[in-house]
Amino acid sequence: MGAERARDKTLKLNCFSDHKDLLDLFEATAHQQAQSPSRTYITSEQYGVRKVTRVLTLQFTAAPFTATVGGRKGDGMILDMQIRDSIGNEYGKAKDVVGEKRMAFTSLADASFDVCFENYFASSQGGRGIRDPTRYIELDIDIGADAKDWSAVQATEKLKPVETELRRIEEMVSEIVAEMDYLRTREQKLRDTNESTNTRVKWFAFSTMGMLVALGAWQVIYLRAYFRSKHLI
């Protein structure tokens, strides 16, 4: 999503059809405010989107993000942004978002959150006179070391700028080490699976060859006995 992704952090985009070239740049087309949007789901490996409401579902304990919304005030459209969890609790809300908007939220535990964007017409007359009723939205999500407010950490712990930067680099290195450990574990599991599969294939091949040899020997013995009973040999 135009931001660093950490291990075990799920990220998917719930949206409509019409694929774009970039996942972190999508469109929200205006509609009448009373209209009820429907939702479909695509994974973060796919691209979206174009239609009424955009919902980004992410699983984090804390996730500051920046939304950059195209358009301008008074262009006949209003784009609202809302953050809520899976049971409907609201963690943040912004009305008539234009330009860059940065928000952050913190939960007590990892959970799925919806970052919703809805673009609707400001007038009840609909989009009359509006040539392109579309807002372009770019969403960047920061996680891990990039998600921390290091200015607040520096002020709280009374650190020097160099010490703060070293702390940030230390956390980034720790994340890289954890990621490498995770990849090494995955590689070990994959290697064990490959070795087990190779062993099974080898013994299956030996068993097949043994069965073929035994079947051939049985056929020879049976045919010799048959021909002897018929006095052919």
TrEMBL record:
The chain crosses the membrane at residues 203-223. The keyword Cell cycle does not apply. It is found in: Membrane. Its main location: membrane. Residues 55-228 form the GOLD domain. InterPro entries: Emp24-like, GOLD_dom. It is a single-pass type I membrane protein. GO terms for cellular component: membrane. Keywords: Membrane, Signal, Transmembrane, Transmembrane helix. Pfam families: EMP24_GP25L. The keyword Membrane applies. Belongs to the EMP24/GP25L family. This is GOLD domain-containing protein. It comes from Scytalidium lignicola (Hyphomycete).
